[in-house]
Amino acid sequence: MATTADFKKGLCLDMNNDLWIIVDFQHVKPGKGNAFVRTKLKSLSSGKVVENTFQSGHNIETARIERRKFQYLYNDETGWHFMNNDTFDQVAIDKDMINNTDLLKEGQDVDILFHAETEKALVCELPTNVILEVTYSEPGVKGDTATNVTKIATVETGANVNVPLFVNVGDKIKVDTDTNKYVERVKE
Questions:
Q1: Is it the case that residue 52 has pLDDT exceeding 80?
Q2: Per-residue model confidence as pLDDT tens digits over 110-136
Q3: Which has the closest alpha carbon to 159: 99, 109, 113, 96?
Q4: Cα(129)–Cα(127) distance, rounded to whole angstroms?
């Protein structure tokens, strides 16, 4: 059991028959009335983000979540398969538990969140940025640099990413996994 004074980003709450992670929160003390806490909560089952307000001092049921390092192996009709780097146990999870599966390449390390009491996998989180090689890209047109012009490039996982004109086939680029956007070109 926790109160609103224990709120922090990443805290997992068990409410309304679902698990919710606190994405953002703010303690508010208005000039009149009681203090309250305004939160943004993300559902671990659906991924939906909602805003909720709690009265200051309100008791909330928390859930213990464990973050474990896994390595992506392969995917097939039974799911996406990962291996624990410490115990070498393998886990298969559904595609809808992973955001941006098109940026996932074999051998890549990810974090999988588990509900500690039930040992059930909840969600798979990719690193903030991944480095991928460009496999296809149209050549840039010389003189087209007056503004921030982009073109579509296909990376080694099959994902399409908007990149600047100077990126060519064979270049390695850093891609943000949350927004699926180009960050920078990576030097070898």
A1: yes
A2: 999 888 888 888 888 899 999 999 999
A3: 99
A4: 5
Domains and CATH numbers, the chain: 2-60 (2.30.30.30), 65-125 (2.40.50.140), 129-186 (2.40.50.140)
pTM for the structure as a whole = 0.75
DSSP 143: T
State the residue for tokens 């030097």: 187
C-alpha–C-alpha distance, residues 160 and 151, integer Å:
10
Per-residue burial over 78-98, b = 16 or more CB atoms within 10 Å of its CB, e = otherwise: eebbbeeeeeeeebebeeebb
Measured distance CA(45)–CA(42) in Å, rounded? 9
CA dist 14 and 41 (Å) reads 11
* 153 three-class SS: strand
Which amino acid is residue 100, in one-letter code?
Answer: N
How confident is the model over 60-64, as a mean pLDDT? 89
